[in-house]
Amino acid sequence: MNEAPQKLLDLEERIEVRVQDIRASRDWWPCRRGCDRCCRQLAQPPELSLQEWARIDEAVAALPAPIRAEIEQKIDRLLVQIAENRVNLPVICPYLDENEGACRIYEARPIACRTYGFFVDRDGNDYCQIIENEVSSRIDTATDIIWGNAESIRHEIERVCGELIPFDVHYQRTNSL
Ligand code: SF4
Predict the structure, then answer these.
(1) What is the pTM assigned to this prediction?
(2) How far does the centroid of ligand 1 lie from the alpha carbon of residue 140, in Å?
(3) Would you kindly state where each structural domain of the chain is located, as residue ranges?
(4) What does the alpha-carbon distance between residue 103 and residue 109 come to, in Å, rounded to a whole number?
(5) What count of other Cβ atoms lies within 10 Å of the Cβ of residue 30?
(6) CB-based contact 116:42 (threshold 8 Å)
(7) C-alpha dihedral sign at 123, 95, 158, 43
(8) What is the pLDDT of residues 12-64, one digit of tens each?
(9) Nearest Cα to 98, choosing from 62, 74, 115?
(10) Which of 67, 93, 106, 116 to mutate to test the pocket of ligand 1 (most atoms within 8 A of CB)?
(11) From ligand 1's centre to the CA of 74, what distance in Å?
């Protein structure tokens, strides 16, 4: 895989520091292989920067042919739904291995996936129900969590990686190359 642009890697490293800080000494934290709730409940088809799309395309291209074909089928179905303005919400991410509950492009997953559950909006409501339940039931190890700032990270993604490109626009461009 080509190396991602350094600024993207730097941003991801900063995110990882926050994520590890939150997870440290909280072995109850639910995000792990097999927990795919957020991947099954996307509010819309993915909308990512060009740099993130480029890395995902490379990761998909490196997968075994049968898995690639399965992902392409899911992408095609989603593109039809978008074109016909009848997207089934919530969206199941086409990169999810639905049997294993695992991301098939984990190392190339976008920043939105890396921050989900760890970075919250000012009102504190922009995270997973599983995490919310855990946090509210564990006053001993959850009260001192220093959450990341979701609004500022969204601005940072656009500043570092450029404008966000909707799922269908990306694939139309890719297929017209
Ligand atoms: S890219 Fe991977 S981590 Fe992100 S929603 Fe899709 S399956 Fe989940």
Answers:
(1) 0.91
(2) 31
(3) 6-22+29-168
(4) 8
(5) 14
(6) no
(7) negative
(8) 999 999 999 999 889 899 998 889 999 999 999 999 999 999 999 999 999 99
(9) 74
(10) 93
(11) 14
